Amino acid sequence: MSVLRNVAGHALRLLALPVVLVAAWWVLSADNTDVFWPSLETIVKAFPDTWTPDRIQHDIVPSVVRLAIGYGIALVAGVLLGVAIGLNRTLRAFLEPTLEFFRAVPPPVLVPIIALFSGYTGWTAKIVTIALGCLWPILLNAVEGVRGLDEVLVDTARSYRMSRRTRFVQVVLRGSSPQVAAGARQALSIGVILMVISELFGANRGLGASIVQFQRSFAMPEMWTGIILLGLLGFVLSMIFRVVEHYTLAWYRGLRQADRGA
After folding, report:
1. Structural domain of residue 114, as residue ranges?
2. Is 223 helix (H, G, I), strand (E, B) or coil?
3. Does residue 23 form part of some domain?
4. Is the dihedral of CA 70, 75, 81, 86 positive or negative?
5. Domain containing 146 — which CATH number?
6. Which of 191, 197, 188, 205 is nearest to 242 (CA)?
7. Mean pLDDT across the stretch 125-140?
8. Residue 27 counted as domain residue
9. 53-97 pLDDT, tens per residue?
10. What's the DSSP call for residue 253?
11. How many domains does the chain have?
């Protein structure tokens, strides 16, 4: 019973504010006749006719797949490059100014440049845009995670003649994983933003393209359904990430709790 009460209490805390905001939006917009700000009731009624199975298949699914591919590429490349740079002081000193420069460049600025070389249509430009935007938070956090490793632990693993693969997986990757997870969480939100922005240039299918098409045709309730759907998609992806992080970093939470107990 105590477990059920804890779960119920957590769910209540999680959903309390969204429920209050939705209820306030519903009440305050009930009598709204503004074309650009339709009532929430009108928006909800437009959902079934707007997001049909065909539109979900041809707009939402490709957008999510492109996001997954671009994010996956950035995650793998960011971790591998970050570990390599973090372990090599000379390489890190050589690349640090360049990495800081690219980190300061807003990812949406790169969209027209990428589209110019890879084309506005097709998946390539969109995936490259998402991957490049997501790369830097993961890469830089991986570098910092490796730099923050306990040198005594690294020397101990080397003195025990552990294989390079074992040291890489059990010491370097494991020790830097909390910092990498922080960068991956930032990159996920950036990826959702770039998923939409990449579809604004010459695309006729996709969640971002659908929202723009609704806006240009003054289909405001349908446009708002796309915006709400985008927010729900980001929320679901964030929850999935939190679940994965919860299980993969369970050892880290236990270690911190043990340190606090000591």
Report:
1. 58-261
2. helix
3. no
4. positive
5. 1.10.3720.10
6. 188
7. 90
8. no
9. 888 888 899 999 999 999 999 999 999 999 888 888 888 888 888
10. H
11. 1
The pTM for the full model equals 0.86
The CA distance from 250 to 262, in Å, is 18
pLDDT category of residue 7 using cuts at 50, 70 and 90: low
Q: Which residue has the tokens 């009624």?
A: 45
Residue 44 falls inside a structural domain: no
* 122/115 Cα distance (integer angstroms): 10
- Alpha helices per DSSP H over the chain: 2-28, 40-50, 53-55, 61-87, 89-104, 110-118, 124-147, 151-159, 164-166, 174-197, 207-216, 220-248, 250-261
Rounded to whole angstroms, how far apart are CA atoms 100 and 94?
Answer: 12
In a domain, 156, yes or no: yes
Nearest to 138 by CA among 204, 86, 193, 77: 77
Does the pLDDT of residue 133 top 80, yes or no? yes
Tokens of 177: 């994983």
- Cα gap 157→241, rounded to integer Å: 31
Instruction: State pLDDT tens for residues 197-220.
Output: 888 776 678 888 888 888 888 888
Rounded CA separation 185/244 (Å): 11
222-244 per-position pLDDT tens digit: 999 999 999 899 989 998 998 88
Q: Give, in order, the Cα–Cα distances in Å from 132 to each of 108, 113, 128, 227, 257.
A: 10, 12, 6, 24, 36
Q: How far apart are CA 169 and CA 192, in angstroms?
A: 29
Distance CA 19, CA 11 (A): 12
Q: 166-197 as b/e, with b when 16 or more CB fall inside 10 Å?
A: ebeeebbbebbbbbbbbbbbbbbebbbbbbbb
